[in-house]
Amino acid sequence: MINIQTFRKLGAACTLTFLSVFALTLPALAEQESHEGEEHEGAHIELSAEQIEHAGITLEKAGPGMLFETLKVYGSVKPNPEHSQSITARFEGQITSFNKSIGDTVKRGEKLVTIEANDSLQRYNLIASIDGVVTQRQANVGEQTNGRTLLKIDDLSNVWVELSLFPKDLEAVSIGQQVRVQDKQGAILAEGEISYISPIAQTDSRSVTARVPLENRQRTLIPGSFVVGQITLSQDRVPLLIDKQAIQIVEERSVVFVKGHEGFEPREVELGRSDGLSIEVLDGLQVGETYVAANSFVLKSELGKEDAEHGH
Predict the structure, then answer these.
(1) How far apart are CA 97 and CA 221, in angstroms?
(2) What is the pTM of this model?
(3) Using CA atoms, how far apart are residues 263 and 254, in angstroms rounded to an integer?
(4) CA 230, 232, 236, 239 torsion: positive or negative?
(5) Residues 6 or more apart whose Cβ sits within 8 Å of residue 44
């Protein structure tokens, strides 16, 4: 049987052993934590030119740029009424033919409608005076013209974006200010400037309409669609600016992938102000360095694969 003194000696020995092991293990744990925080430093991800192209990765050079303070408002795309034609009959009569329907493309000088006049029974044609698209048709063959608009043509290569301004926004907005027009996902559709601010508010919403006329030759702006307007209130030049979508979060740190001789290096950066599209870099990146501006998440994924392989 173990007496009390022997038990105390064994307990003391066990305590000393535990403290010795803990003392030896503590520096190792601290070193491991340090390495975990720095494990991506010096890492490089190699991608071929074909892989870069296939992944849609785009590269930009870091440098100075303009940071914009903007006001976010909402609106919609409208046909420009100054670039439209309403087709009506010169002489009342019966419609004998229609050459165009809704959605058809029209060229200036094309014959649109043939009418037989009631008085003379002579036929005459209505001709398009602009290029555009038929957006309305309000009559059919065999009907009388009856003084109505038969067709409407809109030239959609030039449209209006009408933005809604609320009373609290009015003091900050004026004619001539630049506007960036985006879709709901944030993609830039066009850029223009405010040409008109209505002096009358909408009775239902109390909002005031601001108009932005825009060229639309590529038909990226679809009448009737809702858009976001970023009205520029002020701008400031900063020493180092990059594309905001270049930023990836790796282990709770803001990281940019920088192109070097050995591949792409994940670089921790300190960030400053942002205008939603661009972001200021305060530390971690130098002017002139090439970084991944778009689809940098592909490199983040590759970095995660490397970590998984090293973990095994």
Answers:
(1) 33
(2) 0.69
(3) 19
(4) positive
(5) 260, 262, 263, 264, 265
